[in-house]
Automatic annotation (TrEMBL):
Domain of life: Eukaryota
Catalytic activity field: S-adenosyl-L-methionine + a thiopurine = S-adenosyl-L-homocysteine + a thiopurine S-methylether
Keyword Endoplasmic reticulum: no
Gene Ontology molecular-function annotations: thiopurine S-methyltransferase activity
Gene behind the chain: Tpmt
Keyword Transferase tagged: yes
Protein name (record): thiopurine S-methyltransferase
Enzyme class: transferase
Cellular component, GO, one term: cytoplasm
Family stated for the protein in its record: Belongs to the class I-like SAM-binding methyltransferase superfamily. TPMT family.
């Protein structure tokens, strides 16, 4: 098949947490992603004060960059370590709050209030908890979710989008028989069928 041996591959939450603990985070970009800078106008579409969602955010530096532009940023990540490193590396004070709707989850919110990062599984979120978004920066989320969960992931993302929202998606192209992922190979045909 086109996606080769990846179809049944499953990466557990524990494996992702271990990557953060071991510092095995080659996917993190210290300088931010050049494609966001290149396509920022597409995401913002001339609008200001947007709510922008970062699925599986890690400690993406672009969250601070967009917040500094006056946007409101919401992220979700299973690794509390990643979220705490984000606030520490940007010297941003924050407070921790429980998320009553999600058992064991917490929200780390900048004291300025424009960055809220949820520490939980993305699948525990819903628009009733986090609201809806004007923009999504999916830099490494779709390619990180297990292939068997893609439909579930995309269905959730669609429910989190406002009518006129912009969705920037970064994928990677390679021979899926030579690399087991993540990042997983998501062919363009599948992206079209997932998002419609």
């Amino acid at each position: 098949t086109e996606i080769g041996s990846q179809k049944d591959r499953v990466v557990t939450e524990e494996e992702w947490l271990r990557k953060w603990e071991m510092g095995n985070i080659g996917f993190h970009k210290e300088q931010g992603h050049p494609l966001l800078q290149k396509y920022l106008d597409v995401l913002l579409n001339g609008r200001s004060g947007l709510r922008i969602f970062f699925p599986l955010c890690g400690k993406a530096v672009e969250m601070k960059w967009l917040a500094d532009m006056g946007h409101s940023v919401v992220g979700v990540e299973v690794s509390e370590q990643a979220l705490k490193e984000f606030f520490a590396e940007h010297s941003l004070p924050y407070c921790e709050e429980p998320v009553p709707e999600i058992s064991g989850a917490k929200k780390l919110r900048s004291t300025s209030g424009n960055i809220s990062l949820y520490c939980c599984s993305i699948y525990d979120l819903s628009s009733s908890i986090v609201g809806k978004f004007d923009g999504v920066w999916d830099r490494g989320a779709l390619v990180a979710v297990n292939p068997c969960d893609r439909q579930r992931y995309v269905s959730l993302m669609i429910t989190l989008m406002e009518k006129n929202s912009s969705y920037l998606l970064v994928t990677v192209s390679y021979d899926p028989n030579k690399h087991k992922g993540p990042p997983f190979y998501v062919p363009e045909s599948e992206i079209k069928s997932l998002f419609g």
